[in-house]
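User: quick one
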Amino acid sequence: MKLKYFSAPYLVWMVVFILVPLAMIGYFAFTTDGGDFTIQNVSDVGQYANIFVRSIWLSLIATAICLVIAYPVAFILSRMDKHKQGTMLMIVMLPMWMNFLLRTYAWMTLLGNNGIINNILGAVGLGPVHMINTSGAVVLGMVYNYLPFMILPLYSVMVKIDKSLLEAASDLGCSSASTLFRVVVPLSMPGITSGITMVFVPAISTFIISRMLGGGSNLLIGDLIEMQFLGNAYNPHLGAAISLVLMVIILVIMTVMNQFDPDDQVLI
Amino acid sequence: MKRKFAFLAALMMSLSMTAGCASDSDSDEEEDGSAQTLTIEDKDYYKRFKGDDISINVYNWGEYISTGADEGTLDVNAEFEKLTGIKVNYTNYATNEELYAKLKGGGTTYDVIIPSDYMISKMIKEKLIQPLDMENIPNYKYIMDNYRDLAYDPENAYSVPYTWGTVGIIYNAGEIDIPREEIDWDILWNEEYKDQILMFDNPRDAFAIAEIMLGYSLNTEDPAELKAAAEKLREQKDVVQAYVMDEVFDKMAAGEALLAPYYAGDALTILEDNEDLDFAVPKSGTNLFVDAMCIPASAKQKEAAEMYINFMCEPDIAFANIDYICYSTPHSAAFEMLDEEVQNDPISYPDSDFIADKTTVFVNLSDEANEMMSQLWTEMKSETANTWFVPIFLVVCVLIMAFVLIRRHIKRKKDIF
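Assistant: Done. Structure below.
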């Protein structure tokens, strides 16, 4: 019972740096400059609906691609020898040791019209392909940056799936496809849900990726919020309202995700 | 200026920047090493606080002061500390808005800040900065007439100009065969250069270009004129490759684009990296930007801050700074000390009649105009919106939540039995 006192520092931290700022966002979202109550800010968010749709759409695509790439990787990884697993995991983590901005910046030069990829394509005779400043480049940036966040939770769940379960399945006449869908997928569900949350949430609120790779001609929510606080617009009330709507969206999506969790346990 | 040397540029600069500005001062050092010696006229003035053990907080743009990092240059802050015994706590910001948010939010106090023109007029209006006592800043006499009493601070009561520059067009002279004098803003709308044009990613600068082309004032608050300018920018969207700020450095140097409007001081740095590039100041007029030293209303050491501002206007110090940061100087003595080549450089120092007649400084716009501009800008950058989306979305959210809760409730009941 005494153990619970050890959580006091975190509780204090949580109140001061999480709950209070959250309350402030709520306060700002529903007040005017003079401090009067208003719902104007929240209804103004409606003007930016298309930006929301675009952000949700792009981050959903990025999350789906991450899942498709990460799932086999995580499965293969979890079936490897123990010592090999360590090395491979390190390789997965390796890009994360490098600064996030640098990595995205590198893609900017790679994808450029005179960039390395186009130079190679040009040398082979495939002509320059327009890659930078497109939605595709933004999705690529998201996938590249957040892929490890999908692989790691999947791996940590899959590594706990006992080999004997898979053997039992094939003993009892399961084809490898049905082993996958009836044994591995259900058992790895918690990993899938937390992987999706860990990719989707940062992807939907990113602003630097779209600015660097998307050419700034199509805004994402993150750009919009940044503009309200550090841009010319300087309208913290609208910024707070946008953040609030974004939080509601994320909350809803996470609630839906958690429904797929067989044990009803709430992840993250 | 506006987002001067934020993260990316800083990153890139450290990789690629070897020397300072275009016609750098190799010859200088050989001649007399003028940057190394420091002569101060009135040394007694600076002795006032000696031994009082006070310190001032100076908040400036990144890379915006001579630090003595290159050999033969002065470390301005260290010299000030040595001369006056006042300790300088020096910190950086990347945008005017960041500075504004810091001052507005309180928490930290600063004694000297260096905002840009429109931000100065905003701060004057909101009483965030205080009038200066010019008696304590005798070196104000060096500031050239062209840069005194500008629209953002009509009586020059609050600010002492530090640097200035113009906005112009960086273009790839290897690909664009048009004489520099003939380049004007409409080239940024030219279909011929489709997808080869970069544009400012901040509404104020982007609108200014459209406003010049339409013949409006750069400080217009007229809704109809703002709308027309936004319409002009929307026409341009098809030919624009990307909306960028600091990325201009890299993209222009790498030949990713042929045209980009940018600030003269930064353009010089970019021109160094790619010899094909050149810079034109459009003859139809442009924005003149000024960064000036001010003292926040909340400053604790006003007199020491004024001393610091005066020190920054010492000829040797002003020269050392301008030599390091490559912007243009409003300081007559520092200007005299520059190489003749730099003095006649049309990029840094366009002819003074042009400056007087064809350039405009930004002043702060009213809140309504600012809001309208940023809204028009956001609309321009995204497709047209359906305003009913958010209410419908919220209803759908509530329905999903309800469904989920009911489902969970039913499931629990089942589990019990």
